[in-house]
Hints:
Largest sheet: 2 strands, antiparallel
Number of strands: 2
Strand order of the largest sheet: 1-2
Distance between the termini: 53 Å
Mean pLDDT: 78
Number of helices: 11
Order of helices and strands: HHHEEHHHHHHHH
Strand content: under 5%
Low-confidence stretches: 4-8
Oligomer: single chain
Amino acid sequence: MENWVFFFLVPLCTAYLLKPLHDFFFPKLKLPPGPAAFPFIGNLVWLRTSSFSDLEPVLRQFHAKYGPILTLRFGLRPTIFISDNSLAYQALVQNGAVFADRPMDMPASRFLSCNQHNISSAFYGPTWRHLRRNLAAEILHPSRLRSYSPARKWVLEILTSRLQAGSESVMDNFQYAMFCLLVLMCFGDKLEEKQIQEIETIQRRRLLSLSRFNVLNLWPNVGKFLFRNRWNELYKLRKNHEDILLPL
Length: 248
């Protein structure tokens, strides 16, 4: 029995590891030029950046060497960067329908976004159009500004009272006041201070934790075993997020 399991698992694992190598050295699509990439990790060894703001000077160097269209690989996924205005106009405006869709998101981000069901990552289609219509016509449309005047007055009173109390820094008071306004615009109701602080805490924790879960995107299937504790941490983060928002 053990021999049978061994002879079954070894070829299966070998095939799983060889497929990315085959796709890497024999790509199906002809992509724009870019720096040399390594299997599995792509161009991460050349980038050595912790944020997109640090990536900009590196991109300038690569564009000067490889041209206005550049391909970088983050792990196994190729990403194309365009630095020329006319080329960007051709791709995003003249051929907007061709490039309007979004690719499959990274596993950790896809899990947090409930399979890309938000306006920043949803696939081009009915779900994205519905989210965009709701945002453009209901929340950000100029005609809705007057309807939010009571909300702005309420938030201004909160900000004034907190500034007069002087219990927290000025920046914290302004951030809390703006968050009160955003919560009211999203949920359509005035929430208690405890509820607002819970939403603010879980949202901030989620944003600050994104970089911590990047390692889960490199080898998703294998990573579920190698980084089991971090996956459990991700599951707990989403569970806490749902426990706070869904009752509202």
